[in-house]
Design a protein that fits this description.
Elements (H helix, E strand, L loop, with lengths): L1 H31 L5 H42 L4
Length: about 80
């Protein structure tokens, strides 16, 4: 019984702590007000998106090369050609 009461007390304490943190964060966000340069953020996100697409293409190219080399090596082993 003692453990259950302790668990409930900890749960209440953590819940109140989380509520307090969320409330403080909301109040700070409201006090800052507008002033975010959305155009600059959108441009930066567009550059980031282009970079990620380029990385994706390159990783696909590398994976395809790896698959090709693996297939070549496995054919060499099955054909009995080794160095």
């Amino acid at each position: 019984m003692h453990l259950i009461l302790q668990w409930i007390a900890e749960l209440v304490f953590l819940s109140l702590g989380a509520y307090t943190i969320i409330t403080v964060a909301r109040l700070r966000a409201r006090s800052r007000g507008p002033g975010v340069d959305t155009v600059a953020i959108e441009e930066r996100l567009a550059r980031l998106e282009g970079t990620l697409e380029g990385l994706s293409v390159e990783s696909q190219r590398l994976a395809e090369g790896h698959r090709f080399m693996t297939e070549l090596m496995s054919k060499r082993v099955t054909d009995g050609v080794t160095r």
